[in-house]
Structure formats: C-alpha cells, structure tokens
Design goal:
Elements (H helix, E strand, L loop, with lengths): L6 E4 L9 E5 L3 H12 L3 E6 L6 H4 L3 E5 L5 H11 L3 E4 L9 H22 L2 E7 L33 H22 L3 E6 L1 E3 L9 H10 L4 E6 L3 E2 L1 E3 H13 L4 E6 L5 E2 H11 L5 E4 L26 H7 L7 H14 L1 H4 L15
Helix pairs in contact: 1-7, 3-4, 4-5, 6-8, 6-10, 8-10
Length: 359
C-alpha cells in the first residue's frame, strides 16, 4: 500500500523516451532535475512526502506521488509501476534538533532506493555534497574527488550546528552507494554538489535567496561582516544537466564534483545582485558570516573551507560544463522569484530581526 495516494500528472505535448526515470525527493533540486528529464522526452515519476508543485513543474510531464521514501513498501509499489531504469536520489534532511530525522531521511531513504534500483537493474545517481570534504587543509589548489576528508568538529563560528550531522550522513550515504556497487554490481554515480541556488529554493532566509528577497522587498541589508564568506555556487539547472549527463555516462561507479568553475565570495555575489537590481541597498563588511549568535535561522553559508571544488573530472568524463554564469543565474532566479513573489514575500515568510546586525 502507498503511504499516500495523491499524485499529480502534468502533461506536455511531445514524444517520450522509452526509459523511465524515478526521482526520489521532489524538492528544490529534484523538481528541476525531473523537469529537465521531462523536457528531454523521458517518462518521469517522482516521490516525495511533501512535494512542492511550482509553476515550472506544472509545465512539465511529471507524475508526482505523495509517498514517504523511508517506507520501503511504499517506494517499492511505486517503482513496480514505473519500472525505472534511472533513479535519482535527492532527498535530504538538515535538522540539527532532530538528529534521528536527519539520519532516517538521508540514510534510510537511500537504502530503500538502493533496494529498488537493484530490483529493477536501474542506474542510480546519488546527489551528495561537497561538504563531505570537511575542514580540509587550506591551500590554493581546488579540492579534487580524491582529497582525503578533513575533520568536521569542533565547530567554528561560521559552521552551522547541523553541519557535522549532515556531513556524516552524506559520507555514510556515499559508503552505502559504494558497497552496493561492490557487492551487487549496482551502477551508480555520486555527484558532490556545491551550494545550489535558483528557482524553487525554499531556504527563504539563507544566502543568495535572502539577498534577493530583501532587494525585491526594497529593504536594506547592512552588516558589519560577511563579505569574505566563501560560496562555491552552482545554478540548479546546471546541477540538473550534470545529473542528466551522469545518467548517460559509461561510468559504472564514480564520484564527481559539480559546481561553477570558479568560487565566489559573498561580496562578489552582492555586486552581481546590485547589477541586476540597482536599487538594492546591501552592504557587507569584512570577515565571514557567523552561523551562531545572529538572528538568521540557518545562517547564510556553511561551507567548511575556502577552497573551490575541482570540476575538471566532470568536464572531462561527463562532458559537464556550467551553462550559467553567476550573472545569468542570479538574473534568472531574481526574475523567477519576482514572478512568484507570493511564495517569498515577507508577509508570507517574515525576515529575521536584523536590528542587532546593523552597522
């Protein structure tokens, strides 16, 4: 029995490929990925316990099932109808105050997904995070996929409280994928993502989303810190394209970094926002953005190093290349946010109190 029976089917004119795709986790990244596969002609199904059906999803040919992926029977029932040959796992939880929930969602949903992939001889694309590298040695060279993992504790002022839990769950998940390949021969690709932004982002008071929200609401953001916070950004449509390329690659089991080909500091991001929205009053001082003792619920950034991700392996073996510059990505995101302002308006999602942070 399905845990939930609600599904949403949005039809689009166009031929569909014979290969079925199952997206496990239909949030920010999952929905954009599903829409790209649909655009390319695949038959796309998705599962999520609380799916967000946004405007770009309604224009795609995607069937979304309201199903809890941590329930193996529910996920198996959907997969038996879909018979997927490609499965993309994007489901995550990042709740510091609910340790068990983070482990349950991030690990159990993946374990169930691996079982389903084995049964249907499907290729698995697992979306991990560049945060798995932890507190690596600071040097000029970007982080390659074979870089030894660094420590994740003790926390520094810009590390979010949930960062060690999230990082640990991602490292364990990658081990599960690797074991499934070695023991069962499961074909799988792991993508370690940078900081993803773009349409559908639901972290309303975090990072670039916060900057754009305040600019569009014509509210200033004046801080005495934050300009030197490092951001290995990647636009969500570039991530979706990387997933598509990974699904088509010949790799039997491999790991790839996915980010922009250069990293940015928050001061760079602010300048781009001001170019696109000239009336924006955003000023950041030097130093990093603290994650604690400031009234931003999730902090703005929690990246464990100032080193960018080396994406040369993905460029060479997957044919991945970011299509969106930071300016193009921010412009498209700002345009989409303005069009969907009812989701982002401070009357719906209030801004955090920032009086204590003003210069």
């Amino acid at each position: 029995m399905l845990l939930y029976t609600t599904s949403y089917a949005f039809s689009r004119v166009g031929g569909l490929a014979s290969m079925n795709v199952l997206i496990v986790g239909f949030g920010f990244v999952g929905s954009n990925t599903g829409c790209l596969f649909s655009e390319k002609g695949y038959q796309v199904h998705a599962v999520d316990v609380k799916p967000r059906i946004l405007d770009y999803v309604k224009e795609a040919n995607v069937v979304v099932n309201r199903v809890d992926a941590t329930n193996l029977d529910s996920l198996t029932e959907v997969a038996s109808k879909v018979r997927p040959k490609i499965i993309v796992h994007t489901a995550i939880s990042q709740l510091a105050d609910l340790f068990s929930q983070t482990i349950k969602v991030n690990l159990l949903s993946l374990a169930n997904t691996i079982e389903v992939a084995r049964k249907h001889d499907a290729r698995l694309i697992y979306l991990s995070s560049g945060a798995v590298y932890g507190q690596v040695e600071e040097k000029e060279e970007p982080i390659s996929e074979d870089e030894p993992f660094g420590p994740i504790h003790p926390l520094r002022e810009y590390d979010l409280p949930w960062a060690p839990i999230y990082c640990t769950s991602k490292r364990m998940s990658e081990h599960l994928v690797d074991l499934a390949h070695k023991i069962y021969g499961l074909e799988a690709v792991v993508l370690r993502l940078g900081l993803v932004y773009g349409q559908g982002d639901s972290l309303f008071n975090s990072g670039l989303t916060l900057l754009l929200r305040r600019a569009l609401a014509k509210k200033p953001l004046i801080l005495s810190y934050g300009g030197e916070t490092f951001c290995p950004l990647v636009y969500v449509k570039d991530v979706a394209n990387a997933v598509l390329k990974a699904s088509l690659s010949r790799s039997k089991c491999d790991v790839f970094n996915i980010a922009d080909e250069r990293g940015y500091f928050m001061r760079d991001v602010v300048e781009v926002v001001k170019q696109i929205l000239p009336e924006a009053d955003i000023r950041l001082g030097p130093g990093v953005w603290p994650s604690r003792n400031v009234p931003i619920p999730r902090g703005v950034i929690s990246w464990p190093t100032r080193r960018m991700l080396d994406v040369s392996k993905a460029l060479n073996l997957l044919g991945y290349s970011p299509r969106y510059s930071l300016q193009e990505g921010v412009f498209e995101y700002a345009t989409w946010m303005q069009r969907n302002w009812s989701l982002y308006s401070p009357s719906v999602i209030p801004f955090p109190d920032d009086q204590k942070r003003n210069i």
